[in-house]
Request: fold
Amino acid sequence: MSTLLSRIDVRSEEYAANRAAMVDRLDRLAAFHAEAVDGGGERYRQRHHDRGRLLARERVERLVDPDSPFLELSATAGAETEFATGGSLITGIGVVAGTECVVLANDPTVKGGSFNPISVRKILRALDICLENRLPMVFLVESGGADLPHQLEIFLPAGEIFRKITELSAASVPTVSLVFGNSTAGGAYVPGMSDYVVMVDGQARVFLGGPPLVKMATGENATEEELGGARMHATISGVADYLAHDEMDCLRLGRQIISGLHYAKRGPAPTANPSPPLYDPDEILGIVSADLKVPFPVREILARIVDGSEFDEFKPAYGPNLVCGFASLHGQPIGVLANDRGVLLNEDAKKAAQFIQLANRVDTPLLFCQNVTGYMVGTEYEQRGMVKDGSHQINAVTNSTVPHLTLQIGGSYGAGTYGMCGRPYDPRFLFVWPNAQTAVMGGAQLAGTLSIVARASAQDRGLEFDEEADAQRTAAIEAQIEHEQQASVLSGLLHDDGMIDPRHSREVLGMALSAALTNECVGADTYGVFRM
Amino acid sequence: MRLVEDEDSLVESIAAASREAAASFGDGTVYLERFVAPSRHIEVQIFGDRHGRVIHLHERECSIQRRHQKVIEEAPSASIDANTRSALHEAALRAGHAVGYTNAGTVEFLLAPTGEFFFLEVNTRLQVEHPVTEAVLGLDLVELQLDVAAGRALPDQAAIAAPSGHAIEARIYAEDPTADFAPSTGTIERFVAAEGVRTDAAIDLSGEVSAHYDALIAKVIAHGDDRAQAINRLADALRRTQLVGVSHNIALLVRTLEHDEFRDAEADTGFIARHGADVLGAELVDGDERDACLLAAALAEQAARRADATVLQSIPSGFRNVVTEPQRTTYELGDTTFVVSYRLDSGRLVTADVDGRALDDPVLYGAEPDHVDLLVAGLRRSYSVHIGPERVTVNSTRATLSVGRRARFAEPEVLVEAGSLVASMPGTVSAVAVEPGDRVSAGDTLIVLEAMKMEIAVKASVGGNIESVDVVVGDTVEVGDVLVVIDSD
Reply:
């Protein structure tokens, strides 16, 4: 294969400025992570420990194989919303007894682990990841149920949780619930729908209605242990398959269950001992432009992500704004589509459509590296069929059946977001760097466009245009869009699978690719009609 | 052999010695001797041929003993003057001549502080410690024995050279010096002898130590231009020797060799008892050095787990995109547990501590399942590691530390009834002193077990009534077998 040559100057002022800007963003990311790890705060963590219980993260760390990697998903869910960062649960991909699983763990220190609208989205996304990639689900349950004041945004969407769990089971994707505490009312159906259920003796409480509700409904006086204790469920109701002595025993049983599945991956195995990139991933920080309006050389990024910095470029001289080519990532072959200069022209779109089809022919997963401002506008490009060419790319992306991974390394605007496999195009995983921005268009363009339309409208109706009001409105809209397009805002709302440190890209994508290849990897042979 | 220090225990000691002798040799006859203390053990190697010639091959000193068995032997003796030396050699030759001795033999003496010496016995065979004589004389005593057996004549005494330099032998026993030298049986997971010295071993890389034979499993012999050099070479070799799977006395050997008293040739047969076997036999590595070894063990195990990973093998060990807690491994050393915590970031050691004690600026240069290259407190060492099924062994060139691995998850417990007395070692029940219903006080002897030529009294741990006796005389028991259950008060 061909090796990418790096030409960056790590001593340049530009490099230093870029790096400083990214380090600032990473500091913010670290602060978000700290909020998530903090959970409900020191006081609630202490109270939980005082009860002899493990924190959600401690449970996850003890469930997964020692020294194995763990890829936490949507760690900053809820950031910049009214809800706690983290969404009151942890989700991620971890290795349990040698098997890659999606692990979900309620964080009982955050409002008793109750579900808010963010939690529901995070759970649903995790369950989608289970189904799309055929990853077993291990749910570490301890939740007070719905955060009731927000029931309007929770009740109906949360119903999908239980539906998806049993859909997984129907698809022969194993589902395991390890119940450490409350799992009541609707929450009772998490274990209820799971293939395997373990409950911790003296801690698990699984019932539809607790003592007060039962008293109100039927007049019966019953204890929590009678209604939903682990021992009762393991010996009488059969809701629990295994009774764990304590939390560690519960985790041990969970590992035993996964081990006993002898779960086989359906995708190809990686080649052993892949070479790391030739260049230091830390240098990515100085390569990425502090100002997204300045394009940065994407081959320099790829040289710090793919195996051995090796990249066989396809059609290098045609449609040069979009770089296409084959590489491998942690021993798995991949096709790469990466924006080198933000805008996509007709040739770039055509090249993308062809390359996606070629990758599908050889059952090769695709990696999209987004830094795209959109498809080119203007008479020349419209007349050359920009809509048609962009549609080819979107058609190919949509109907491609190999796993898609999307890494947003810069802007993602307009239909470029779609053609480059943004969230609406269901990549198996989508990760964003902290500098990423996503919107229909940039704040200034959007506000300016609105201003032009308003001015024309006023003119048409012969009204006087209030320049001052327009300036205020334009500034307000620009500020709003500037905020809304930030990675932290979109990631907080679960529009991706997590904001990551650019230096972790190789590991994160490698784990995501391995997860995706737990399912089979077969290319498409049919597409929508390509308009010619 | 029993030491009787007061008249009251005479009868019991004779009975016990007699039982032991009967069991081991089929003859319960015992005899009484004067006890000389403090004393040194000096012995002379003699050889006799079929032509009436008896020669001596100089003396050995074997004063470092435990339970009246030799532990460290050297040639020549460093504690006698020329007159005593020639008197000893003379006495030994006279003994040999008196019986018309043929073959290799050892005439053993006790040397009192006054310079008097007392005849002990003649061992009519080649002894464990013969290699020190070979080392200083450059002779092969087995070859000489074959010559004698073939009827060849021995060389003239005058042809026997003076000892060259100094040689010391240390006996490695499978026993626990910190538990009163209790013999240790089991499977040797690993035995690696040091290079540059002679090691004669009953085991190869691995082997079985059963209760049926002596606890001696290897002997290490170092030769030097002088005694100090021999001591240093032997101590260093012992520090590099790896023996895993059974308890052993290597730490005691090293501490003894490096002890000023031994270096100054002041040690007598009471040395070990005087300094305490538990002190001499305690783990050689302690404090920061032990913590570094524990970290090396954890990192080697980490490397082994990553090498064996079936998925995501090429992702860096312990990768986390959101950092939470470090990796933890718990090890057991005797009754103490150590929790080693570490976090790796792309192979770089970010944090490392043992029980919350941070290691001093650790830098990891490489971790493989059998080898860790680690710098701690400015000192870079190459740790060789062996990962066994239950134990991890680390040799830092200064010592071998073997620790038990605490399973991450406890298996559902096997409960042992409270008040149960269990066998602490495998053996045969030689006496049962109680029956159900008997009233016993703490410390009463209930059962006598015999193992590896030793008698172990199983004593009541608490006072109470005997609820059950689960063995009869002649039963073979394994470690952990319940012998007696006491219904405690």
Remarks:
- The longest strand of chain A covers residues 404-413.
